[in-house]
Amino acid sequence: MSKHVAYTDFIDCEEDVKIRAKDQARVVALREKKGWLFRLMLGLVLIGPGVLVMIADNDAGGVITYAQTGAAYGIGFFIPALLLSGFIAYVVQEMTVRLGAVTHRGHAEMIWGRYGAFWGWFSLVDLVLANILTLITEFIGVTLGLGVFGVPHAVSAAAAIAVDVVVLLVLRYYAWERVSLWIALGNLVFIPLALMAHPHWSTVVAAFSSWRIQGGFTPAFLFIVLANFGTTIAPWMLFFQQSAVVDKGLTVHDIHHGRVDTAIGTVAMVAVAVALVILTGSLVHGMPGASNLDIQQILRVLGQRLGPIGEDLFALGLVEAGMIAAIALTASTSWAMGEAFQWPKSINMPARRAWRFYLPGLLSAVIAAAVVLIPHAPLGFLNLTVQVVASIFMPAAMLFLLLLLNDATIMGEHRNRKWQNIAAFSIVGLLVALNGVYGLSVVMPHLF
Amino acid sequence: MKKDTLNLVTRSDYPAPVELTRAQLKGWVRVVFWGLRVYIVVMIALVAIGFARGHA
Fold it and tell me: Closest chain B residue to A13 measured between Cα atoms?
């Protein structure tokens, strides 16, 4: 390790740069060593942003949306649709890995710097508002989930805030990432739950050959499709993963591992989403009024069909989904604000020196928790609204991403290849088309 | 609490962020940005109508 020189070389650096340098030294040291064990260790060290963003995308709102989708439409159209949305999520998120590793700047910073204050403000306001709305759904999940165990909503919301605060303020980036990954592991609880439902696997396989839509192509169906795409790819994911890649200190040498990380996250995300649709598609679909059940009613049905263990596991999954997404969203808001206003912008920074960076994220979490505790707040409505709003603004976020990824002066040899542009522009086209059809269904409902 | 646990590496191990200069919007990119403005206004209007009519 002859590269490594005196402490004085870093003496005038910001604290976050020093700590990031230490993380990078670990990566450099592992990369220099030979053997499968060190390669595995390198992979484990570099895993993080991709898995976190994808698992956090299976948030409480997502769990609720997938569960309601399975209850309403059963095992059918949405199984292959979710596989497609997984592919879409990978294509989009892989671009943020390259952009972050090449530029060492976050997404908000790039938009602000390249396209000016108008689009910078537009993206920032859009992101922060969407994050607060999404955080509301996370606290809905946490309070509903812990409510199954008799925990009062105020206590569970306060506990969730406390976890969020401690994880963000006390841990530096690497430890924050490791703790978050352990929490994210809990998302997989929905897979054994789906197996407990003893689904008809022939029906699952048949879903790929028949894209039949029960009840036809109605505005309600379209809304669910938008909600599902909205929960699979969302603007916050772009901002989060790029900022995480930068804060972790990944370089162009780490792009391959970043891709693997994102791919692993995608597989886990799709597996959990499909498991949820299979679970409620097997146990809830077909019951009277199954199309209109809220998540509490679905929980009760699962309790009746699987017993208390099934209900408890689902509730814990809901709590985990809300918690991991709250951690990610809080960080995403803080990073974006820090990047936009050029504040200290690293989870490696101590709270006393970077309070402006930590404050917006934590404040957004507190606001969201407070909304959830308002009696008779239209929480179910808010949940679906978040997904629709996210999917409508996604094309704008994608556009900035695509412009940056095709900017040869910034990206050099890492700019988008032809197939990546075809895939990404097709995704933008799909999103715009879906939103357009939704708009038509609103203005001219008789067409559907 | 967070500790300063610097392991000694050179500054060259950590590349600096790229220089950021304002992009010149020309040709099709300019058209795309206007399309984006129109899209955003139209979608916000449609979502407002949708919510008012109880679609969401």
Answer: B11
